# Entry
Amino acid sequence: MNIKKFRFVIFVLVFSILTVLLFSLGINAEEQYVLRLAHDQTSGHPYDLGAQRFGEAVEARTNGAVTIKIYPASQLGDTAEQIEGLKMGTLDLSIAAFSHVSQFVPELGIFGAPYLFESDKQFANVFDGEVGQILDNISLKRYDIRLLTTYTSGNRVLFNSKRSVFTPNDLEDLKIRVMTGPADALTWKTFGAIATPMAYSELYSAMQAGVVDGGENECVSVLRNKFYEPCPYIATTYHLVLPMGVFISNKTFQELPEEYRKIVLEEAQKSAIWERDYITRMNNEALDEMISKYGVKANLIDKVAFMEKGKPVQEIVAKKLGVMDLLEKIRAAKN
# Structure
């Protein structure tokens, strides 16, 4: 082989190697996915911390190919606007209360009924099993969104500005802010309050102004949003364990390569298992802190009286939504 031919062969080899490398770099650049996740709670709330763990794990397992940027405190709109964003593909992920999402996926409204869950195990059995898969399929069919997994609020309590509440009779004339699901207003009307649907972002100012007398939420949120300031009376009604869905736009989900979809699903589930345990502990600590540090007046309730009024709401709502079979699966999951 003469020197000119040798140089030509070397040139071709080097050119080929550089072409392959540049092509590979171009492919890698195209395979970067930055997903936006929104929710309505404050930074540092258990939902937010769960989302952070989820994002960090996904980024690590995809070697940085998939990153999740988190927008807390309704920065990208309230829950309804977030879910609409998932549908349109302008938002990728949202952690959203089932009661709010039920305006788009009506079947989720059954989970606003009181006293559905008797234990953390039952909650996990429901959402990590057959019912969770059913709800994912329904969400996809109804609104082109996917339910990756389900966080929890833990047990929710009643807070108000007027008086201690021990029995349903004590709720007379109290205006209580409720979520927009089909079971929420009915529950509090059944308990004896004046149910007032309202956006979560408006609640604090509404309580300050006396537009409503109180609301209901988990203790962590009451503490972090300082709802105890206008409403120093807390009754541990524990009437609802609210499912918080981690929803993803189906458009986003389909754009991800199959290997990344699998990672997103697995890490979402892992973050949910962590969040459910963490928020239970944080709710207990938050109640203790509000009592000891901020002078909140907390009391137990006549749970039997509340359950007698509240449990019939389950079947009323299930029949209205046509999900009696789903209600039976929820109840069966306690075993």
Observations:
- The first helix runs from residue 3 to 30.
- The first strand starts at residue 33 and ends at 38.
- The radius of gyration is 24 Å.
